[in-house]
Amino acid sequence: MKKTLIIGASGQIGKMTTKQLLADGKTVIALVRDKSKLADISCDKLHIVEGDLENDFSQAFADCDQVIFSAGSGGKTGDDKTMLIDLWAACKAVDYAKLANVSHFVMVSSIGADDPSQGTEIMKPYMVAKHMADEHLIGSGLNYTIFRPGLLTDNNATGKVKTIRPSNKEDMTINREDVASVLTYTVGKSELGGKIFELFNGEKTLADILN
């Protein structure tokens, strides 16, 4: 039975993705620090694993075919947590996935991770962390897909996206629920391996644009 491990399953995008995959009949391993944060989800295809990303969480990878890394330190933490979660934990997840012979690793990165030098001073540590985590995944030998969403919003999903960066900075946004839909769509599609996509609100369906 194919299983998808979601790292950061209690976060906003991670939880949305978990719900969508379960609704599609997929088996999900949800890695969280506190399982009570998923208490509102009841499904026999959901298996919750408690673990701390700052420590060893390799046990969550057992029998998993695919991995989605959607964890993040959050905007209210300092640079120390950014390094520990967005960089170090992401790199450890890649290493664990390789040891577990995972067939597809999906990374939720960020716009700007391609060139952190272009970011603002306050955002550079975050961009550097995302950049280095992405590079570690690219060089790992794993079959990977990296998504770099724009500024995240809480608007309702539209089901439409684009992967070409808008020229207007105000348009470089995407709804969290649409990011989750992209992650859900990617599960089971190994042909998306080796690709990096930026994500923004757009006009095309996922099937039209993710190929």
From TrEMBL:
InterPro entries per the UniProt record, alphabetical: NAD(P)-bd_dom (IPR016040), NAD(P)-bd_dom_sf (IPR036291)
SUPFAM superfamilies: NAD(P)-binding Rossmann-fold domains
Name this protein carries in UniProt: NAD-dependent epimerase/dehydratase
Pfam families in alphabetical order: NAD_binding_10
Stretches assigned to the NAD(P)-binding domain: 8-185
Origin: domain of life: Bacteria
